[in-house]
Design a protein that fits this description.
Blueprint (H helix, E strand, L loop, with lengths): L4 H15 L20 E3 L5 E14 L5 E16 L2 E8 L5 E12 L2 E9 L20 H6 L10 E11 L2 E8 L14 E11 L2 E14 L4 E16 L2 E12 L2 E15 L3 E11 L9 E13 L2 E12 L5 E11 L1
Antiparallel strand pairs: 1-2, 2-3, 2-17, 3-4, 4-5, 5-6, 6-7, 7-8, 8-9, 9-10, 10-11, 11-12, 12-13, 13-14, 14-15, 15-16, 16-17
Protein name: Phosphate-selective porin O and P
Pfam families: Porin_O_P (PF07396)
Amino acid sequence: MKLSRSIWLIVLSCALLLTSLQVPLLGASPEMENQKPQGQAIYSSLPLKLSGFAQLLFTGQNNAADTFSVRRARLSLDGRILKKLTFKVQADLTRSPVLLDALAEVLLDEKFSLRAGQFLVPFSLESTTSAGRLLTVNRSRVVDLLAPGRDNNSAGRDIGLVVFGQFSIFQYSLGLVNGAGINKKDDNARKDFAGRLIVNPARGFHLGLSVYNGRRLDAATSTNLVRNRFGLEASFNFSFLHLVAEYIEGKDDLTEKNGWYVQAALDLKPERYQLVLKLDHFEPDRNLADQGTTVYTAGANWFLSPASKFQVNYEYHSQEAGPDRSVLLLHLQVGF
């Protein structure tokens, strides 16, 4: 895999341009505040906040054409309507556009609140982490292919109702969703259950459990097939070191699937430069041999502002059924 001289010049020019930006930095690790808005306040009769980001990706592969692409271009507006009533609306302009989030939250109490509308399904740490806060360019294959709302190309989202809250060292989210994906009505008479429980036994350390029980409509037979998921997660953040691991298994009708990933990030300079290593594995059918794929990722992150960064990732995909392949990813995110 070779990059042309012109591509390197473009990358260098972008890097030099971004170096000239003098913007105060916030924390680079996203795990503890995955969905916290980063935008600036808009002056109005209501306390509103507008935020957004755009992502330019260069992909160089040893078995396909190198290409530039605009991966995401998102705008989000959220705010407080009443003392205990908030809302959020988010759209992605690269998809025609498409509505991602449209939700309202009734904040009754720290221990018990309500969320209704279209939102991220409460399942998995990485699945509920905003695309703008990932430490690698791509999500793990097991999350992309098994997490509810991502297994049906819905950006991790669905329509429904969730209760959530926290007490002592516990945080929880429990709810019912359609299970059909974003901007879609339910395709069967059942509602899918989604739940996530997080325990914070010590500062910077958390353990999590996710459960999803649902059905999906098989268009060929007009029957509702099993679509169940189970996940475990753990994260550890201490000073300059950030560790994350997840395991997810699922059952689609009679097919059993599973996978896992581990990720380590090292801050070379807090809030500025970071190295990342990641290993993830996915088995599309546990009853068939030689079907698994393991992805090795090595990367570096350069944080330019609270919502802007430049990432370099090298991925090596080892496929049991072959052939193996390698991918170089250059990722520029500019946000506000």
